[in-house]
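Notebook, p. 212. Picked up where the previous page left off. The plan for this session was modest: take the two constructs that came back from the sequencing core last week, fold each one, and keep the raw output in the notebook itself so nobody has to go hunting through shared drives later. Recording the first one now, exactly as returned: residue sequence, then the structure token string.
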Amino acid sequence: MARPFRNVRALCVAGASATALMWGVAPAMAQDAADQTTGEHATVVDEIVVTGFRSSLQQALNVKRREAGAVDAILAEDIADFPDQNLAEAIQRLPGVTIERVNGQGTTISVRGLGADFTRTRINGLEAQAASGGNRNRSFDFSMFASELFNSIKVRKTQSAEIEEGSLGSTVDLQTGRPLDFANSGFNSALSVQASYNDLSEKTVPRTAGLLSWSNDSKTFGILGSIAYSERSPILESFNTTRWQKGDPTKAYGVGQNFGGCVPCTTEAQRTELLNAFYPRIPRYTFGNTQEDRLGMTGALQWRPSDRTEVVLDLLWSRLNSELESPNVEAWAFSRAAVNNVIVRDYAIDAGKNALSYGVFDNMLVRSENGFTRNESTFAQASLNVRHDFTDRLRGNMKLGLNKSEARTPTNVTYAFEQAGVNGYTIDFRGNDRLPMIDYGFDITSGKDFTLIQGTRSTSGGDFDNNVFAGALEYDWTPSITFKAGGEYRTYGFSTWGVARAQTATAGADRITGVDALGKIVSIDGKIGVPSGSDLSFIVPDISKINDFLSVYDDPLVPNRSEREVDETDKGVFVQADFNTEVANMTVRGNVGVRYAKTEVESKGWQTITVKDDAGNTTTSYDYVTAYNDYDDVLPSFNLAIEPRDDLVIRLGAAKVMSRPTLGDLTPGGGVSPTTRTVSYGNPLLDPFRATNYDLSVEWYFQNEGLLAAAVFYKDIDSFITSVTESIVWSDLGLPDELLQGAARPTDVFQVTRKLNGEGGSLHGLEIQYQQPFTFLPGLWSNFGFIGNFTYVDSEVDYGAAGKNRLTGQSKNTFNTTLYYEDGPFQARISAAYRSGYLMSFPGGNGNSEEGMNATTYVDASMSYDISDSMTISLEGINLTDEYNDRYVDETNRISDYRHTGREIAIGLRWKY
């Protein structure tokens, strides 16, 4: 089934039977432009006259086939015909690409086991940074964009000198629509509407898109505009623990993280067993009510006065707003000093996990919380691309552009009720280690014994600015050899402000017990599979009522010196030789070149300085520190494609690559989170990640739309930034107690994290691709076809004192499969995307060996029917199996967060003219 607007871009056709865009096989002009844009010499590819989805598959194979390096692509109809909520979910179907999901939708991507910080993204040829919510790193958040806004996606997995540095893994090229891509002059237009239903929230939300394009009769000038709007309203239903921790049997009851006592522990062995076992820090069932709306617009002015000259102005703007209310009730004492007062009345231990599997507790502190967060994120870009052929042999191109991403959290408010001295709190994992039975021991729908204890409000934001000027010349020295030279000048700025915070610790008339009038009852309806006997309904703060009661919105926001800035200047020059010749009756093509990159970094942040005089008096001051660093890199690269016969391509690639440190690691200031007991320090003198990449692949194009390919790759990472995490008592850090803001005590243990340049490591893997239409089968079976890919990746990285382990974010095994059917006006397809488990952090916190995510498989399906040449109806389903995200801590697989968001079923109607 076609997405409402993605099939709109299938209007970019060559004649009545092909959907060739500027990378297509039909129009000669589009082919020439593509060759000049990519700088690659194309090999001869037979014209394929097929329509719709199959045409797009063939075009993507043509892109892959003619490149010198390893490239995979998705084109307009291919993007259109998969049921994807945003751009990330469209990209995930390419070999070696996996996505991170947040709140039920894809956000960032990993390529061949390297996470989002190691992947560069360009939009219309301009490097871009898109951020939403609390993003404070170099990763590109693809959830900012509807997939309808883009005509093509390319993932470059090998490096060449002409491609700007900054990636260890890949470069993703995104291209929006342009008016001269259309086969017909004059007006082209389309409109689509869709209604999407979520079976967990039981809400229906709209999705709509439109396009209008015009070009003159001679097709020398055109203008295009497009718009896409969508909403989401899922329920985020989960059980989570945050993490697990344990006590210390060498210490007395009531000390450190030890319980206050144990009724059934009559022997020292039982006491030791109990205090050695991990227990959940904040066990709770929770759900979030989410509202999102995404609006995106593109524009393009394209002027092509002759075959020698082209000028294109591309514009892109996108906005993503989200609101989340997150009520929960939790065993608060386990994560605070109040655990020292908790008495264990009964317990059982899972020996395999060394963790409590069952417990009954007295003198428990129970907290009921409700929070509301609003995120507002925008991205804007303008880019000017100019191409001119000075002679038949000398060409030049220039690009000039800027983009800005703003990530705002203007509202983040939390209120809490608390009840102490609760007896009979019970938690039981024995029936299901992901979904325990929880009985709080009292009526948690009643507010008569709860006390309103506090309200907090904060606001924060981050800005990302990118300005680029680049140019290059190409000269055909001979028909077989082209020399290229060029360079870029780029300024990149990052700043984060806030976190400003107001906190009202209720006292006097505000500190009331008996909060029914300030609360509301919420319920988990059991779709997550909560065991019987659990408390499914509970009272939580009603945010609108307490806003009128407490003064948190009247209290001034007080900056806590968490502002950070990074200003970076990147300069690069390159020389490259492309070749395309015949050797022993074989086509041999490729490129060899070298790039020089110079990076200058100025980073700023607040630093806390504590001075003690001879009398032991302490003086604390705060300085906004500025630090400087610079480094340069020489990056040679080589790509070779050999065609021993017409249907076979053998590729070799080697390159030195670098990726700059994460922005949050560079700032010289220190960051403190009293609530989560974490501290992090930046290091402005970090060197970049550096690696040497090797690639070998064999591709067999055994028929039209058919491919069988295998690739092996190896990355020698010779400098890797690692995180060192240690458990340190706050009072030993030398930081002011004022930063605790009453949310922690100076005697509490904090997880202190610092970044250092480590020893490096290695990564290797295998990719296999297969696609084929089943035209060899009889009858209706010949209308079926298959697309599939499998990727295996393994790695070993030195994490310093923590030892060696695989890279965070790297899954060992991933696969994507699609079975499709296409017969005249009817199309259908079903897809599955599997990702094996992966690390999220190493080592883990609170004594856990690691933190990670267990394997997931997402199944989507779609179908569409052309009612007429201009009207199509569609039906699609996303996450048909309602897959759960299962986050864990420790190699023993203790539950951290077990979450689902429901299925999406959508029906749509598309009109085009």
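Okay, moving on. Second construct, recorded in the same format:
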Amino acid sequence: MRLTDLLHPHLDGVTTVVDATDGGLNLEPYLHLPDGVALHHGEQDVGEGELVLLSYGPDPELHGTEADCLAVLQRMRPGGRGLIVFGHREPELPYHRLLDTLVAHHCQVLRAAPLDYVHLHAGAVFARTDELLPPHDWFGRPVPSEGFATALRIADEYVLADLVSRSLRARVLDLERTLEEAEGAQGPAHQEGLAERLAAAGQEKEQLAAALRGARERIGVLEARVAMLEGSTSLRVGRALVSAARSPRRGAARLPRELYGLWRGRARTRPATPHTAPEAAAREPAPDGRLHLAHRAFASTPRDRLVIAGVLTDSTAADFAADAVVNRVLPHDGRLIVQRTDPDALVVQLSACTGDGPWSLTGTGLAPDLDRKLAELLTETRAAGRSCVLWRDGPASAAPGLARLAWDAVLDTDTGVRLASLDPAAVGRQRLRGVFRADSTRARLSELARRIGAPDPLDERRICVLAAPQDRADVARLVAQVLGQVHRPAEVVVPDPTGLDELTAAGVTVRTGEPLAPWVADWTDLAEDRPDTLLLDLMCAQEYSGADAVGSTLAADDYIFVPELRPLLVRRSLLTSGVPPELWARQGHRLFAWCGKEPS
């Protein structure tokens, strides 16, 4: 919730707002006061027609001190109102330190709500009164009750809310205690087991390297012997005689000439001497100990995408490949894939172990050789400093052996839905929004990335809004439109960032210059009405189509590729290329139409 949503319903009859906040907090850019309401700073008493602003938080330099807050409450007079903003998060709010002072000065809290800012997490509206006032609902409207009914409502809600909050707090404390006990119990054993596994992996790696070097030496000796035999005169004479015997007419005529040529060339063949051996060895390419993989993806640039080595099904690998670099491991090359591609994580999907495929029956106890190879693969991954993740998209009983392995993380969820696999006409726009926000493959991969500390695929959904507000009305309209979006933009680029402190406090980057987000929306015309689902629907259309630009057409085309459009959402690289929109389609860029109307 914004501060204006909490404050404005309580400005009826208020002509003066007194800012009594201390420290470094400046609430003026957040208020957007209507005409007829003046803002003043001071320490005067607050009475009828006035509303005071005060703050309370953990940072004295920003929110002021507790003593300053209590001093403001002492200056409240009948009819005065107040708004207090809290720097504490809701579960940590020490409201008990203010409660006695509020009661002593007849201040009744009418409404409290969370605030969506970085340094302000909650707010409460109160009034100085000599009689019990009806409380307000979530939308700031007074509840129709009075007198004894109001007291009963407040008392009942307090007792019931305290019951719910006590049970939740007790549950949290139990979970924290259980987690601490589990970590304490398995900590030393886990570390010892990890050290043993690492030592075993290192020893096994050295043994395999020694065996590989021995095999290559034997191969070199055999290749030298084969070359010596192929170059011998006896073998060449034998080949010439066999060739002549197979074709007597033609071969017999050529046989004397071939034997004479062998006799003439005998002097040019010299056995290798100790003096020539080093020169020949220098000309031979020395083996570098590397094996090269075919048909595997890798990048030499700084990593900005999630890289996965996975035991995955065909459909999951195809879905993940749209948002990550995916290298599927097989039982015979899994360790080599981990060594050469350096993935962010090894992901083992339970469905790939219980269905058809090269890893079928893994973890069921029916394929011990596959279980052993998977355990070796996990050891190799940990030795490389990477995470091992079990994606449990089915019942654990289907492959109970997987639970006995040591995993760094376990995801108990499905692999999500690719928007491109849905039919917008059949599922409806509301379903597309739900899949986009919570059930998409990209959202699932984002959860995986957060677990392992890898690049977040949801960064590809970041949007930059271009705007140029001219006056205070434009600033207020821009702030309201940006913060009202369900899919909030990541940054706003304007010629002058003055007056946009509320956007910064809400976590939206405000700056000048060129956009940095992958997608750009031009909101230069601030008089245009924009629904709160505008950016959400545009990103849904882009992720469904994979287009480079999404916009509207004169014919009101919807969810179809078009040769030209009025761009509403454009890829940053395309926008900064300098190519005019009418030439985008001719240069191979994909344009997707979105009409903005719900299908009937």
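Notes on construct two before I forget. Residues 427 and 433 are 10 Å apart (CA to CA).
Flagging for discussion at group meeting.
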